[in-house]
Design brief:
220 residues, alpha+beta, 2 domains, 6-stranded antiparallel sheet, 3 helices, 18% helix, elongated, disordered N terminus, transmembrane helix, PIG-X/PBN1, Phosphatidylinositol-glycan biosynthesis class X protein
Amino acid sequence: CVTADVQAACQDTTVTQELLKEGFHRDLLVKVELGEDAGGCAVAAQMRLPPGIYVDPYELATLQQHNLTKAVLFPDAIDVEAPEYLAGGLLLLLFLEPEARCSRCFRAAVPVHARYHRPARGTEEALVVLGSPEVLLCCCHSHLSAECWEPAEVDAPCSSDTTSPCQWHSTKHRPAHEESMLRVPVGLREHSSLVCALTLLTTGLCAGLILAAACKYGHF
């Protein structure tokens, strides 16, 4: 690794995140601009995903096989079918790639999926709030300023391609930036009686048709 002077990064580091596409299946785009050139350093964004949103580990493994994204997911075993109220939060370490036209700029995207929520009263949507990512740096043989950077408790290598441990550092003074919100459609509790009645009626009708067909064409 090449020694990098990132002493002023904590003063000017900016982080933006954006949810692309619409619906339950989105892309989370993260952009980071450091205060100075961080050549030779690995840059990552650590995000705590709430129970209302998740990353599919099987989809992530496929994307990593094709070098379309690099990330580490904790825990790596996830119930992708669980609703929001039965799921837990996730920790995602997303490795960022440098941008060609900016030596201080890094970015990466990862697919995320919204979970089904409980029906609500008086509203047709639930809000899933994504907190701001934490910027992490891993610089081999670099001496980061103690005033700007501090060791981070991250048990992950400097790259998704290696397994050797790495000492990550995080900024002490995180910049101010807005949280992202995902609006998830939910059912109305006021419609529960109607939905139950229609479901029961449809189930009975289908069962009757199946029974009639069995009696007419079946051999007993």
